[in-house]
Amino acid sequence: QVQLVESGGGLVQAGGSLRLSCAGSGSIFSINAMGWYRQAPGKQREFIALITSGGTINYADSVKGRFTISRDNAKNTVYLQMNRLKPEATAVYYCYAQTTLVTWGQGTQVTVSS
User: Fold this and answer.
1) For the CA atoms of 76, 70, 110, 14, what is the dihedral angle to 10 degrees?
2) Residue range 88-98, pLDDT digits in tens
3) Tens of pLDDT, residues 31-70
4) Of 31, 37, 72, 82, which is the most exposed, with the fewest CB atoms less than 10 Å away?
């Protein structure tokens, strides 16, 4: 099994930046991809970005050019650098890891003030 711990959320003004971290432990060798979703109040969970074990990266159109996903294999950690944040980015951000199952982190709150 894989365990995920997220960190890095917080309050930021519009136009600012935050970096989220997702540290994996457990059966990390079995991870095919890791990524991020977010869920705003009253809305469905929304895909943000993913990075595969082979290094393929995909982004949602809404964040292309402003968000960057990366990984540090030595630390078993995936990052989401978020720049030029908008108030509509306010949400709980969830890290996930895909093996034969999908494991979710506990979520971290990001609040962008206007």
Assistant:
1) 160
2) 999 999 999 99
3) 899 999 999 999 999 999 999 999 999 999 999 999 999 9
4) 72
> If DSSP codes are grouped into helix, strand and coil, which group holds residue 16?
coil
Question: At 101, which amino acid appears?
Answer: L
Q: Give the pair of three-digit tokens for residue 89.
A: 């980015």
Which string of DSSP letters, residue by residue, matches 56-95? -EEE-TTTTTTEEEEEEGGGTEEEEEE-S--GGG-EEEEE
How far apart CA 36 and CA 47 sit, in angstroms, is: 7
Instruction: Look at residue 29 in the predicted model and tell me its pLDDT.
Output: 81
In sequence order, what are the residues at sequence separation of 6 or more whose Cβ sits closer than 8 angstroms to the Cβ of residue 16?
Answer: 85, 112
